[in-house]
Amino acid sequence: MTENTSPPAAEMPDSPSASTLDPSVPKRCGLIAIVGRPNVGKSTLLNALVGQKVSITSDKAQTTRHRITGVRTIEEAQFVFVDTPGFQMKHNAALNRTLNRTVHSVLGDVDLVLYVLEAGRFGLDDAKVLSLLPEDKPVVMIANKLDAVQRRAELAPWLKSMAERRNFAEFVPLSAKKESDVTRLFKILKPYLPEQGWFYEEDALTDRSEKFLASEIIREKLFRLTGDELPYTSTVVIDKWEDEGELRRISASIVVERDAHKGMIIGSGGERLKRIGSEARQELEHLMQGRVFLELWVKVRSGWADTEERVRTYGYE
């Protein structure tokens, strides 16, 4: 399936500048992990903190599969956020074991942990994640999706019960979709950053390549447009990438485990695959500020998520 090009989208806003920083003020920089069970809004929070999409979102669990770094520099402080896969509670598949290793490796490196929950909710999976958090790191509890809480008065006893579970450094109820809440969070986190030089340039947004972001955006559209029909083990591989001035020619394969899954993605008369390609291309053009020619294929690779070697072949750490 080939997707035609269209004019480039409007320019993205510039990231905050630190060019007027007082040289007598010491710089701060730190690694901040964002952890929690699947579907608590970790990727949405990361994108809000960075100010641009660097991690994909969908209602399907296990959307994030990689260690994804987002960077935001505000005045003298550089916040380096690491979005992680949700902890996988079933370890039978090679993909799940790989995702959990990614989470554990992140937690060993960071200066601060953001433990994300849905405000007012604490289930068994949340408890399992909490039990795995390091005791020697400050942990800020983020009560996300505050906008979905109908009775705010019920939050006080819930927060009290959470305080009894661990000595959290901070409690921050918020909605990741509300700009003022995100601004407030930066002010809370800043004192926890060590005084040291920045890891990235002040206008950096992520350490991930355009090729990686392209595969993730295609995968996001795949999950959003197939809903619960498609197993989360489906993945996307970039087969070819060519730059021709401001035009990018991209060929990608959507990898599934069964022939039936292939049919779900292609849809009647190829309409669903065409829509996946169209929506992915539009977002890629917006992100990359140039024209994109996107070609998508669907391939069946039975049992790929159950084999460590094949999981690594598809780019999982």
UniProtKB/TrEMBL annotation:
Residues 83-86 are annotated as: G3. Residues 1-23 are annotated as: Disordered. Keywords: Cell membrane, Cytoplasm, GTP-binding, Membrane, Nucleotide-binding, Ribosome biogenesis, RNA-binding, rRNA-binding. Residues 28-195 form the Era-type G domain. It is a peripheral membrane protein. It is found in: Cytoplasm; Cell membrane. It comes from the Bacteria. Residues 62-66 are annotated as: G2. InterPro entries: G_ERA_dom (IPR030388), GTP-bd (IPR006073), GTPase_Era-like (IPR005662), KH_dom-like_a/b (IPR015946), KH_dom_type_2 (IPR004044), KH_sf_prok-type (IPR009019), P-loop_NTPase (IPR027417), Small_GTP-bd (IPR005225). It holds the Pfam family KH_2. Residues 144-147 are annotated as: G4. Residues 218-302 form the KH type-2 domain. Residues 36-43 are annotated as: G1. The keyword GTP-binding applies. Gene3D superfamilies: 3.30.300.20, P-loop containing nucleotide triphosphate hydrolases (3.40.50.300). Residues 174-176 are annotated as: G5. PROSITE patterns: G_ERA (PS51713), KH_TYPE_2 (PS50823). GTP binds at residues 36-43, 83-87, 144-147. Its main location: cytoplasm. Belongs to the TRAFAC class TrmE-Era-EngA-EngB-Septin-like GTPase superfamily. Era GTPase family. An essential GTPase that binds both GDP and GTP, with rapid nucleotide exchange. Plays a role in 16S rRNA processing and 30S ribosomal subunit biogenesis and possibly also in cell cycle regulation and energy metabolism. Monomer. This is GTPase Era. It comes from Roseateles oligotrophus. The gene is era.
